[in-house]
Amino acid sequence: TIVLSDKINNLSESATIKMAKLGRELTAKGVNVISLSFGEPDFPTPNHIKEAAKKAMDDNYTYYSPVPGYPDLRKAIVNKLKEENNLDYDISQIVVSTGAKQSLANVIMCLINPGDEVIIPTPYWVSYSEMVKLADGESVFIDATIESDFKISAAELEAAITPKTKLFMFSSPCNPTGSMYSKDELESLAKVFEKYPNIYILSDEIYEHINFTGKHESIAQFDSIKDRVIVVNGFSKAYAMTGWRVGYLAANAAIAAATDKLQGQITSGTCSIAQRAALAAYEGGLESVLLMRDAFLKRRGIVYNLLKDIPGVKTNLPEGAFYFFPDISSFFGKKTETGEVIKDSADMVLYLLNTGHVATVGGDSFGNNDCIRFSYAASEENLIEALKRIKNALAKLQ
Ligand code: PLP
Questions:
Q1: Is the confidence metric ipTM above 0.85 for this complex?
Q2: Is the pTM of this model over 0.80?
Q3: Which of 19, 46, 349, 374 could bridge 36 with an S-S bond, Cβ 3.0-4.6 Å?
């Protein structure tokens, strides 16, 4: 037998990837499965971005790039942060990586020593706590429920802080809940951080453009803490570029330099062609982004109305991203037609997959066992059918 490292043995398998796999297995058996488990826009990458990639190959952008990214792409990111977010950064503060996921992992690896505490509000994106584990840090969770629209208060934040707290990490708009912190809410959190100058704030803003309230608010806008905020963003969700693998961070130059050093040892610069495509995305304006956002907004409305109509399901109205995170705990303790008891969210998603033929993800892997997550990055037709199947499957539970 192969002896693997404790690190890898202690790591959980990504729940979203696992559910997608189970869905595909059922599909391979001839079952018509509607997969709502993955967090991926269903739109193709806009044409002008694809064309830039083709041109990049013809122009021989086929060599190693500088580790933190091509200077013109980093400059375009500086311009974007200024124009769209009114945030001032220098190019030395920007590091481009192989997806926002790598940017997040880079920051955690660069800041966390064994035993350092990382505060994570739940529900949170599945990979956060696993990245903290890899760095031998300790995740400290603050449980937010549907009653507070899955957001934490300044008082809850302050109560979770200890002398070991090194980092706070969160996403707004949030995966899995779609919740967004308002400017006032962010300011009240920032006021807490003002009192604790040794805590860093990792702000995952990958869903920035899938925002139904209008303006994106970043916690980096508060000057008193900006130097300790690491903004992570990327191209996957806004520009339908999940497979291209381009993300970035904007941070204090010393943190940026540390992630550059780390990346230089493990991956080098991200794909040269993908970087040229990302540059075209930022130079091409927001037209395609807004079209996709509008499509998500329409789908959100369709799904919200259908979901509200299912007895026993509680839902919030997500303000961003493309997920619903309904509370289905009223079904716990009920039995399926074959007599199995639904005990938790993991049982529920298997039941919905096997009986309803809809793939979703259990809330347990996002730190909330009362809920399930499903994506509405799917066609309207599939969404309507999926919600019908979920409603019928739930009605069969006794
Ligand atoms: N952060 C959140 C909250 C996400 O949901 C995702 C992707 O699902 C990422 C980061 C990673 O994005 P990327 O594709 O840029 O690595």
A1: yes
A2: yes
A3: 374
